[in-house]
Amino acid sequence: MEVIFKVIRQKPNSSPIVQTYVLDVEGGNTILDCLNRIKWEQDGTLAFRKNCRNTICGSCAMRINGRSALACKENVKSEITKLQQTAISGEHTHVIPEITVAPLGNMPVIKDLVVDMSSFWNNLEKVTPYVSTAGRKVPEREFLQTPEERAHLDQTGNCIMCGACYSECNALHVEPKFVGPHALAKAYRMVADSRDSETQNRLENYNEGTQGVWGCTRCFYCNSVCPMDVAPLDQITKIKQEILAHKQVADSIPLRHRKGLVEVVKQGGWINEPQFVLQVVGNYFKDLKGLLSIFPLGLRMIARGKFPLTFEPSQGAQQVRSLIEAVQQEVGSRE
User: Fold this and answer.
1) Residue 135 and residue 143: Cα distance in Å, rounded?
2) Res 191 pLDDT > 90
3) 43, 105, 282, 325: which could form a disulfide with 167 (CB 3.0–4.6 Å)?
4) Spatial contact of 204 and 182, defined as CB atoms under 8 Å apart
C-alpha cells in the first residue's frame, strides 16, 4: 500500500520544514524500515539515529504522529489504525494514509530527526545514578541481595534511556531546571536498592524545590509513551512517599503543600485558602521569607476583593473527612 511520510526536517537555528515522501510499504514494516528506505532510495541527506533495530538501545526515539516512540517498535499498520486513516475509495477520490515523523521534544535539533541530548544526560547525572557503598565495610566478595530485594529494581532497571518520556514532559516547559522523569525513575532505583548507603542525601536532593520530584506536573505522558513500561510517574510518586515518611528530610514549601492539603480539606471539606497559604508558604509565620514573597500579591488581592476574609466549611465536610480517614487507615494497614 502507498503511504505518505511527512518528515519534519530542521537545521540548527532555522525554522523546520515539512518534506513529503511516498513509499509503497507493507503493514508490518516498522517506521525505521521506512526511514531507511527513504534514506537509501530517495534522499540520502535525511538524518536520524538508529542502532539495534530491536527495542533495546533506544537510539531511534522520535515523535511519530505527535507522540514520542521508538521507530523500530512502531509499524505502519498500527500507526494507520491509531489515526483511523484507512484508505477511503470513491468514484474519483482516494485518500492515501499519512504518517508524520518529527524530532523529540524538549531538546534542540542538530539536524532533521537528530536532537542534542546533552540536557538529558546532564540531568541524569544530577541524581547520582549509581549505587553508593561509601561508609560501609567492603565485603570480601560482593554486596549480596535477596531475590526479593532485587525484584524491587526490575521495573526501573528496564529503562533504555531513549528519551521518550523526557520529550513529552510538560514539567520541563514550566520549569527548565526540572531534572526530568527519566532521571527520577533512575533515582528511585537507587532509593530502592538495598546496597545503597546514601538514601538520606538522595531524598534531600530529590526534595529540592521544583528541580526534583515536586516539579512533576503529573500529566501522565511519561507513563503513556515509555516503550519499556518503566512508568516514570509511578517511580516519582514512590520517591514522594519516601520523602513524606522520612522524618529527617528538611522542611520545604512543596513538602508542606503535600502534607497540608489533605489536612486542610479534612477540616472544611474544601480548601481554606488563607489558612492553606499561611501554612504552606509562611509555615505559620516561621518562614518570614516566604511570607514576604507573597505579601505584595496578598495586598493586591485584598484591594480588589479577591481575598476571602472568612471561611465556611462545605455541607459535606464530615463525609469528606470520613472518606479521607478511611483511605488513610487502609493505606496504614497495608504498610
Assistant:
1) 14
2) yes
3) 105
4) no
Residue 247 has a pLDDT of: 65
Q: How many domains does the chain have?
A: 3
Q: How far apart are CA 130 and CA 284, in angstroms?
A: 39
* Residue 39 DSSP one-character state: I
- DSSP for 57-90 reads S-TTEEEETTEEEETTT-BHHHHHHHHT----B-
Query: Which residues touch 328 (CB under 8 Å, ≥6 apart)?
Result: none
Domain residues for the domain of 278 are 253-334
More confident residue, 55 or 306: 55
pLDDT(55) > 50: yes
The domain boundary residue, chosen from 245, 280, 310:
245
100: nearest Cα among 122, 119, 85, 87: 85
CA of residue 264 relative to chain centroid, distance: 28
Rounded to whole angstroms, the maximal C-alpha distance in the chain is 80
pLDDT in tens, 140-162: 778 888 999 999 999 999 999 99
